[in-house]
Amino acid sequence: MSDDIVLQTKGLKKHFPITRGIVFQSKVGAVQAVDGVDLELKRGETLGIVGESGCGKSTLARLLVGLETPTSGSINVRGQDMTKLRGSELRRARRNIQMVLQDPYTSLNPRMTVGDIIGEPFEIHTDVAPKSDRKRRVRDLLDLVGLNPDHINRYPHQFSGGQRQRIGIARALALRPEIIVCDEPVSALDVSIQAQVINLLEQLQDELGLSYIFIAHDLSVVRHIADRVSVMYLGRVVETGRDLEIYEQPTHPYTQALLSAVPVPDPTLRGHRDQIVLEGDVPSPANPPSGCRFRTRCWKAQQKCADEDPMLTLRPKSAHPSACHFAEVRDVVHAVD
Ligand SMILES: Nc1ncnc2c1ncn2[C@@H]1O[C@H](COP(=O)(O)OP(=O)(O)OP(=O)(O)O)[C@@H](O)[C@H]1O
Ligand code: SF4
Ligand SMILES: [Mg+2]
């Protein structure tokens, strides 16, 4: 693992068992929520992860921060495999990777003051800051995220949605992590507030040298902040590349369909796009299709797609990795002069 890679996963899987029976539960299947994800995150970089509801984004996020145990695969943070660490070693390594959640309304305990919420990580990791210094640190964190340090004794309901998300970000920063996993951090906010929170995240990234995994269900939110993007479908990454490669030269049919559904803010581009309407529902992750998981909704599907599982790799007509046997660029949103 090279020095500038702060996080790397290999073959990461999370299968949730499906059981039957009340007293003697027997396993009758598994929900393949995350099924073999390889990703790399460089220092100071933002990797966007996009995909429809249920494709495994939150499960992946929870695996990365240690809230779920992988079924198999590895999670390397600065060269240490988190899946092999135990006890105090694991606790110390986990400090380095923190999470910001989607819903600032439900993710903050309404009965705790903001000071106690942001300072809670210091109670768990007692060696990070001496007790006498914690209040000052919390005030500094409030200031860092653009909130008034004098509001340290207020409760979450006394803040707006955007301010509550700032509280969530301050809390994630308390242990001075290098990596932050943001799971739909702006999806619950008004559009005008979304931009402010994204700007704050970018500013903090520059100031503190943070690396982000930034999860969203649509490509337009990720476009502003991500350096690279991975597109997920049914527990797997189907295409990955630099942001322009994904937006301007998508080669996987699923990415092309997602892009065709993204609202285009530039009026000159409106009406100059392919409309790709996906047929059918997302199959159940408990019973995914054979071969390519996208084949039941893909207009290019052929027999090979049912017989052979396409790996995420460079393809003859794709300059970046794509998990499609027939990957080729399709210009979904056309620019006009
Ligand atoms: N604890 C669990 N037990 C069983 N199945 C689960 C569990 N957590 C998630 N799943 C299933 O795993 C799949 C992936 O869920 P996940 O929440 O990771 O998707 P997501 O991409 O974050 O979706 P959304 O965009 O709606 O947040 C879904 O089918 C979900 O029902
Ligand atoms: S492998 Fe086949 S089914 Fe899958 S995306 Fe490519 S063409 Fe479609
Ligand atoms: Mg989710």
From TrEMBL:
InterPro entries: AAA+_ATPase, ABC_transp_ATP-bind, ABC_transporter-like_ATP-bd, ABC_transporter-like_CS, Oligopep_ABC_C, P-loop_NTPase. Keywords: ATP-binding, Nucleotide-binding, Transport. It comes from the Bacteria. Gene3D superfamilies: P-loop containing nucleotide triphosphate hydrolases (3.40.50.300). GO terms for biological process: peptide transport; transmembrane transport. Residues 7-259 form the ABC transporter domain. One of its GO terms (molecular function) is ATP binding. Pfam families: ABC_tran (PF00005), oligo_HPY (PF08352). Belongs to the ABC transporter superfamily. NCBIfam families: oligo_HPY (TIGR01727), PRK11308.1 (NF008453). This is Oligopeptide transport system ATP-binding protein.
